[in-house]
Fold ABC transporter substrate-binding protein.
Amino acid sequence: MPVLSKAYWTGKTFDETTFTPFLSNGAYKIASIDPGRRIVYERVKDYWAADILPNKGHYNFDRVIYDFYRDDSVAFESFKAGDLNLRREWDAGLWKNGYDFPGLKQGKAVKEAIKHGRPDRVRGFIYNTRREPFKDVRVRQALGLVFDFEWVNANLYHGLYSRINSYFPGTYLAAQNTPPQPVNATPEDKRANLRAADALLKDAGWVVKNGIRINEKTGKPLTFEIMLDDPSNEKIALSFVRSLKRLGISPRVRVLDSAAFLRNMNGYDFDMTLYYWMSTLSPGTEQYLYWSCEAADTPSRWNHAGICDKNIDLLSKSIASAKSRDELVEKVRTLDSALMAGHYMIPLYYNPTDFVAYWKPLAHPETTPIYGTVLETWWMNAP
């Protein structure tokens, strides 16, 4: 928690932008600023908390410089040229095929996928269960059966990602008894999942007539819209649409600008969306805002799916009142199991590693913390 000087801020407007470095209580102070280009931090030599136990092994650099780039391709070229010491990579394609520059081949630079144990974004195609046909769990389950994660991962993400099978993916908070997600790796898998999906849809009253999935009673086609906020997600959505067409379902895909997307999300004005939830290793009151009936009926909360289940409601409310870590873990795992059983989303992928590339003599500890790479614990070896 930052502690700021009352004497310094007296008479100044706290929420006004400034380029004048101010007194703070951290291990570094701002040495210089070049707006829009660079900020330089300098280590505080007499840092008051340098010797306390939580800070042992931290803050090993005298100076830390952040350079800003408008174009990531320019930033990558700068890294390959050795102008930058370290780069975090977020593009799976670039990580797979782009890191073939001379410095890496010569052993002067290092490319590492560093495993972590923190919760990642729970990304998925989220159903709005406030609306038909997604009020019916059989429909939700059926559509999830035909999503071809194996194709998406292999062709769009070079096989580097893992399938989400929990609302706390890759952590010890994940439920231990959750069935694995459907696999569509082979033609036999696809046919089996199509048959199972067709059976669920027919049981829910949706039959095929002239190649179109319609409601047996009303004759209305099963159709809906997939709302996106990023054109780059269209590839995933269109892949899903291709699979759904084999069931006689033809959804529409619509990309909105950020303002319109946020407005629709806050008002729950969508059928299905590709979005996410985010948790930590210490879940608390936010779980009630994610999953409770109250949150489902309150605009601008985070219960995107409109989940209103008595058991989930009680579980999400109880998490913040857990009396011990063991009790918290048990409650979270029970909640996770209930959420996954409800088929409120079609889980996508997460990255169980941090993609990091750096130039020697930069180095890091052999043991990585559960939350992943902590740059404050790195150091620079002698050349």
